[in-house]
TrEMBL record:
It is an enzyme of class 1 (oxidoreductase). The keyword Hydrolase does not apply. Residues 1-36, 59-82 are annotated as: Disordered. This is coproporphyrinogen oxidase. GO terms for molecular function: coproporphyrinogen oxidase activity. PROSITE patterns: COPROGEN_OXIDASE. GO terms for biological process: chlorophyll biosynthetic process; protoporphyrinogen IX biosynthetic process.
């Protein structure tokens, strides 16, 4: 999943008490003090220390440092963008988990809460082998750290004129989720909404703080039901149109381009919306837009799962779903910027890789027969369509 530094997420208050808490093992401190190879004949020397995670037995009111928002307390409303974004993503985590548990009709999410001594932390929730979902992960994190320049490039996507020359202090917060149903006629869903800030490195005092928003929601079925795809895309368009009519076509194309598996020459799924490095609009507007998109996840997805979860299927249908999940794994491990960034900054590995399905399949030189339902899905992944 496009998770950001261990799976960015959080939830609003009051918190639900239905989730079971489990301890997570401490991770060792990571440091990089030797040259890191970048390009042939070039190396980059940096020293970056990542604080080890500390398991917590209960959720804190906030993962923010005290200095970030002195008014952020249970008795007052948050004022900073950091604090309000944390409140939003924790609310999104709660609402999606509650909706998934309602569909499951019994199984509950396992929950791990963790923190870091210097500030920040996260809540990871995973449901495995449920009645409906093979694996569902909904994570939030609020992370402070210092990243090497190559991780900054991974976060930004490419080198740019604002590139920092040395280790870069950063703040990242987000909610990230991947939902893999058991039934091959029920689609996989991914969503991720994040906020990122970088401070000036020590060797460039006084440089301006930079910020941007990113995220999206995308739809990955194994079989095409046009009504389902149109419903999903319609909800994305409704969320976008509340802010700018150019957003949906722009972010829909961006999604098709981003989730492109270059070595297969096909998309991971049937798209949705995706945006990143977004800071050319008013900050308040982008915060409200991210909130609207996150709130659209449940109405866009849950009605489709309810409709498809009990459909009868064959071993052939299941095998095709597993082949498509193989594509999902390939994209996430080879191309996904969030995964790359989390691995480069020493993020929580279980949260970063929670997007991977429990099972997937690879067959040598598999090609669906032209005209079949499987072929129609592959054709739509190779040639993106306008669904609405």
């Amino acid at each position: 999943m496009a998770s950001l530094v261990s799976s960015p997420h959080a939830s609003s208050l009051p918190f639900s008490s239905t989730h079971r808490l489990h301890h997570t093992p401490n991770l060792p401190t990571l440091s990089f003090s030797r040259p890191i190879k970048t390009k042939p004949n070039h190396s980059l020397r940096c020293s970056v220390s990542i604080e080890k995670e500390v398991p917590e037995t209960e959720r804190p009111f906030t993962f923010l440092r005290d200095s970030d928002d002195s008014t952020h307390s249970p008795s007052s409303s948050p004022t900073s963008v950091r604090a309000r974004f944390e409140t939003m993503i924790r609310a999104a985590q709660d609402s999606v988990c509650e909706a998934i548990e309602a569909v499951e009709g019994g199984p509950k999410f396992r929950e791990d809460v963790w923190s870091r001594p210097g500030g920040g932390g996260g809540i990871s929730r995973v449901l495995q082998d449920g009645n409906v979902f093979e694996k569902a992960g909904v994570n939030v994190s609020v992370v402070y750290g210092v990243m090497p320049p190559e991780a900054y490039r991974a976060a930004k996507g490419s080198a740019s004129s604002d590139q920092k020359p040395g280790p870069v202090p950063f703040f990242a917060a987000g909610v990230s989720s991947v939902l893999h149903p058991k039934n091959p006629f029920a689609p996989t869903l991914h969503f991720n909404y994040r906020y990122f800030e970088t401070d000036a490195p020590k060797d460039v005092p006084g440089a301006p703080r930079q910020w941007w928003f990113g995220g999206g929601t995308d739809f990955t079925p194994a079989y095409i039901f046009e009504d389902d795809v149109k419903h999903f895309h319609s909800i994305q368009k409704q969320a976008c149109d509340k802010f700018d009519p150019s957003f949906y076509p722009r972010f829909k194309k961006w999604c098709d381009d981003y989730f492109y598996i270059k070595h297969r020459d096909e998309r991971r799924g049937l798209g949705g919306i995706f945006f990143d490095d977004l800071n050319d609009y008013d900050q308040e507007m982008l915060l409200a837009f991210s909130t609207e998109c996150a709130n659209s996840v449940v109405p866009a997805y849950i009605p489709i799962v309810e409709k498809r979860k009990d459909m009868e299927f064959t071993e052939q249908h299941k095998a095709w779903q597993q082949l498509r999940r193989g594509r999902y794994v390939e994209f996430n491990l080879v191309y996904d910027r969030g995964t790359t960034f989390g691995l480069k900054t020493g993020g929580r590995i279980e949260s970063i890789l929670v997007s991977l399905p429990l099972s997937a399949r690879w067959e040598y030189d598999h090609k669906p027969e032209e005209g079949t339902e499987e072929w129609k899905l592959l054709d739509a992944c190779i040639n993106p369509k306008e669904w609405i």
